[in-house]
Design a protein that fits this description.
Blueprint (H helix, E strand, L loop, with lengths): L2 H14 L4 E4 L4 H13 L4 E7 L7 H12 L3 E5 L6 H4 L5 H19 L4 E3 L13 H7 L2 E2 L1 H4 L4 H11 L24 H16 L5 E6 L2 E6 L4 H7 L5 H7 L4 E4 L8
């Protein structure tokens, strides 16, 4: 048995030991795969819970709903106003910790109301190699990371998800919109909105992996390195500058290095 399939077998053993499971869901592949695996291991005893905040890119909640439907699991979606949490809005270096604590506290509270025994999230082995302050908050709140515990990395999860026929298997990775705002700059609703609209425009123009970094009135666009030529060539034709100008960006730059996932 190769390492990937051993990891899948280990994941199933881990999940089968849980009496009931609440999966913290986004629209991404990691939580989609974990949800599908949990539903198979604990049929009828798995629930998906997501938090709808203004930090999620457009389409993420709809994707979470599709993932839950495909797994045959009910999805509980809870709205929250992150602008009531000053520790998130001030956007200091510890923002990710406070954001995760805010979101996962909501998920845990809902799970406990439903008498769920275990809370899990889709952290994988690659995530553990990165600086992610939010992982500490998840651990403090008792969330387990079965994918990482089973030794599964992102590439493994994509391939296993493809084998399972999951619709999210090749979905580009996403991150919360707050990551587009420079650390130390207060998070404002209007900035999140224009970043989200700008990224949505680029995605609809054929650029799957996109980040629009917002620094005041300046937007710095990141796309996959292989798509840089296309973006530069079609920039005028697609009306990029005009669209971003309407969103309040006075200066639009294209990052020459392209998008690189940390």
């Amino acid at each position: 048995m190769d390492q990937m399939h051993k990891g899948m077998a280990d994941l199933e053993k881990i999940l089968e030991k849980m009496g009931s499971i609440a999966v913290a869901c986004s629209g991404g592949i990691d939580s989609a795969f974990l949800l599908a695996a949990a539903a198979r291991a604990c049929p009828g005893k798995t629930i998906a819970i997501c938090v709808d905040s203004r930090l999620a890119p457009s389409g993420e909640i709809d994707s979470a709903r599709r993932n839950a439907e495909q797994a045959g699991v009910d999805l509980v979606c809870i709205e929250t106003d992150i602008f009531q949490n000053t520790k998130i809005v001030r956007n200091h270096e510890d923002r990710c910790y406070h954001c995760k604590k805010h979101m996962f506290s909501i998920i845990r509270e809902q799970a406990e109301k439903m008498k769920i025994q275990f809370f899990v999230h889709g952290v994988n082995m690659d995530d553990l190699k990165q600086v992610r302050p939010g992982l500490k908050a998840a651990q403090e709140l008792g969330f387990l990371a079965p994918l990482a515990d089973a030794g599964l990395a992102k590439a493994d999860i994509r391939m296993l998800s493809r084998d399972l026929g999951l619709c999210a298997w090749n979905r580009p990775s996403q991150s919360c919109l707050a990551t587009r705002i420079p650390t130390g700059t207060e998070i404002r609703a209007k900035d999140l909105y224009r970043v989200d609209r700008a990224e949505l425009f680029l995605k609809e123009s054929g650029f799957a992996q996109v980040r629009v970094r917002c620094s005041g009135a300046k937007a710095v666009i990141e796309v996959e390195p292989s798509m840089l030529g296309k973006l530069k060539k079609e920039r005028s034709m697609m009306g990029l500058d005009a669209v971003l100008s309407q969103l309040g960006f006075e200066c639009v730059e294209i990052d020459p290095e392209g998008y690189c996932q940390a």
